[in-house]
Amino acid sequence: MKTLSSSFALWLMTVCLGLPLVAQADVPAKAAACAGCHGVNGNSTMPGVPSLAAQNARYIYLQLRDFQEGRRHNDMMTPMTAGLTKDDMREIGDYYAKQKLSSKGFKADPAKAKLGQAKADETLCAMCHLGEFVGQNEIPKVAGQNYDYVIKTLKDFKAKTRTNDAGNMTSVASTLSEADIENLAHYISGLN
Fold first, then answer.
1. Residue 160, φ and ψ in degrees, nearest 5
2. 142-178 burial, b if ≥16 CB within 10 A, otherwise e?
3. pLDDT tens digits, residue range 128-154?
4. What are the pLDDT digits (tens) for 60-109?
5. Where does 6-97 sit in CATH, by number?
6. CA 100 remoteness from chain centre
7. Do domains 6-97 and 110-190 have the same CATH topology?
8. Model pTM?
9. Which residue, 29, 36, 38, 81, is the most exposed by fewest CB within 10 angstroms?
10. Which CATH number fits domain 110-190: 3.60.150.10, 1.10.10.10, 1.10.760.10, 2.60.120.10?
11. C-alpha angle 99/39/12, rounded to 5°?
């Protein structure tokens, strides 16, 4: 596994911790540290970074815990979660769950979105992610998520480089073609 040098990790945390100072005063300190990458109030403007706004609190908590305990890997997230307590992780999850997800301005290709919806129906995505892809408990809300992040996540599950899902997404993603992934991303990212 690739690791960050300690000087780069320190620089990264300094930059990420310094950026959110423009955030609203009601942002909990631990959540404010997330704004450098995930955006003020959890609305990411970085294509490969997920928005956290309106995400399920339990899902956020579990993902932070998985980064901290090594079940999920990311060179930027692992050092950011290192010093978090369970209460910190719950506070971050609760905060972002209460935020409003803003539109990304993504313009889905209607033909690809239609094919994506058909694939979502075929693979029973709504069985776990619920109708309108709002998620529940440990299952994330994916509606309106960043297009590039949806692509990356599906590819990571397919390649088994992300496996902190008890096998459900890994199993589904293994059946998807590149075109299926693109179509699903158009459908999911186009939902608001």
1. 65, 30
2. bbbbbbbbbbbbbbbbbeeebebbeeebbebbeebee
3. 999 999 999 999 999 999 999 999 999
4. 999 999 999 999 999 999 999 999 999 999 999 999 999 999 988 899 99
5. 1.10.760.10
6. 15
7. yes
8. 0.85
9. 29
10. 1.10.760.10
11. 135
